[in-house]
Write a structure and sequence with these properties.
Elements lengths: L2 H4 L11 E2 L4 E8 L4 E2 L4 E11 L4 E2 L4 E3 L4 E2 L4 E2 L4 E3 L2 E2 L4 E2 L4 E2 L4 E2 L4 E2 L4 E2 L4 E2 L3 E4 L4 E5 L3 H19 L9 H20 L4
Parallel strand pairs: 1-3, 2-4, 3-5, 4-6, 4-7, 5-8, 6-9, 7-10, 8-11, 9-12, 10-13, 11-14, 12-15, 13-16, 14-17
Antiparallel strand pairs: 17-18
Helix pairs in contact: 2-3
């Protein structure tokens, strides 16, 4: 399999940190700075536009389909998720095997727990933790720091993979950089308007 057979050549991947060769990408897909797209991701956009915000990671076996998909900045769309014509805000973590259906809107700084099913047209307010089938808000908590840190870790890993290095999450250097990044994100949250 060569890249040309799996990825629409009209998609500009030049700003991505890492795109695995097995990712299948077709249609009008806009990729932000520092995005990483991991093994066996499928994105198909036969109508409308799919937007993936900067520093977001789309992890292994994720399916994103349909026009009008928007995923914000610093998000982690984790393994085996399905996103169908939905909108996800900034700094969100969508847990393993979650499904988000047509017209759903997930606010900023949310966590959607693994296995959650978000039904059509559901609107989740910012700073929510969502669980269940159908997904419901269980806790209100601003997850900006945890979610942005997870996205930062994936971005660092993507840069390592692009260099052919596959053990980026171990060692003293990683621990020190992670602590510094967390401190930065905690300051950003503290300094944000309305904090």
């Amino acid at each position: 399999m060569n890249r040309a057979t799996l990825q629409d050549p009209s998609i500009d991947l030049s700003r991505a940190a890492y795109v695995h060769p097995s990712a299948c990408l077709y249609g009008d897909i806009r990729i932000g700075d520092g995005v990483s797209i991991w093994p066996y991701v499928v994105m198909r956009t036969e109508s409308g536009t799919t937007h993936i915000g900067e520093m977001t990671n789309i992890q292994d076996f994720v399916m994103i389909h349909g026009g009008g998909v928007k995923i914000g900045r610093y998000c982690s769309i984790t393994h085996h998720c399905n996103i169908h014509v939905a909108e996800i805000g900034d700094n969100c973590l969508i847990g393993i095997n979650a499904t988000i259906m047509d017209g759903a809107v997930i606010g900023d700084n949310c966590i959607v727990a693994g296995g959650t099913f978000i039904t059509e047209g559901t609107v989740i307010p910012p700073n929510s933790i969502v669980m269940g089938t159908p997904g419901k808000v269980r806790v209100m908590r601003n997850s900006f720091v945890a979610n942005r840190l997870n996205a930062w870790i994936y971005h660092r890993n993507a840069l390592a993979y692009a260099r052919g290095e596959y053990r980026a999450w171990e060692g003293d250097a990683f621990a020190a950089e992670r602590a510094a990044a967390q401190a930065t994100f905690e300051r950003q949250l503290k300094d944000a308007p309305g904090s």
